[in-house]
Amino acid sequence: QVQLVESGGGLVQPGGSLRLSCAASGRAFSSYVMGWFRQAPGKVREFVAGVSRSGIITQYADSVKGRFTISRDNAKNTVDLQMNSLKSEDTAVYYCAAETAGFVATTAASYDYWGLGTPVTVSS
């Protein structure tokens, strides 16, 4: 089992940047594929980005490609999401998730463990 704690959310103006971080504790972090999801008010939780166990393979939602970057540090048990050129539609609660299936899944149901989320608000 793994425990996940997100940090780094906040209020940012359109065009600005934020870096989210997820700290993991528990079973070997490097055995999990990691993902970031987000959920805006009244909407379903959606995939944002995912990274393989080694960190070599990454996948992004079309809506964030070229703006967001996911990375992991298996020595520090962390996975980060660098968010640039933020837009109002990026406003949501962002969740870190871990899955054991071994591939970078894009559906929330594929992930086994979740953090409590960190809110991101993009507004002027």
Kindly summarize this structure in a few lines:
Helix content is 0%, strand content 49%.
Mean pLDDT over the residues: 96
What oligomeric state do the depicted chains represent?
A: single chain
Q: What is the SS-derived class?
A: mainly beta
Level of helix content? under 10%
The span between the termini is 40 Å
Strand share of the residues?
over 45%
Detail the poorly predicted runs.
none
Biggest β-sheet description: 7 strands, mixed
Number of helices: 0
Give the H and E element order.
EEEEEEEEEEE
What's the count of strands? 11
Which word captures the global form?
globular
Q: Which value, in Å, is the CA radius of gyration?
A: 13 Å
Write the layout of secondary structure elements.
Blueprint: E1 2-7, E2 10-12, E3 18-26, E4 33-39, E5 46-51, E6 58-60, E7 68-73, E8 78-83, E9 92-99, E10 113-114, E11 118-122
Parallel strand pairs: 2-11
Antiparallel strand pairs: 1-3, 3-8, 4-5, 4-9, 5-6, 7-8, 9-10, 9-11
Description:
The chain has 124 residues and is mainly β. The protein has no helices and 11 strands. The protein has strands spanning 2-7, 10-12, 18-26, 33-39, 46-51, 58-60, 68-73, 78-83, 92-99, 113-114, 118-122. A hairpin with a 6-residue loop joins strand 5 (46-51) and strand 6 (58-60). It is globular.
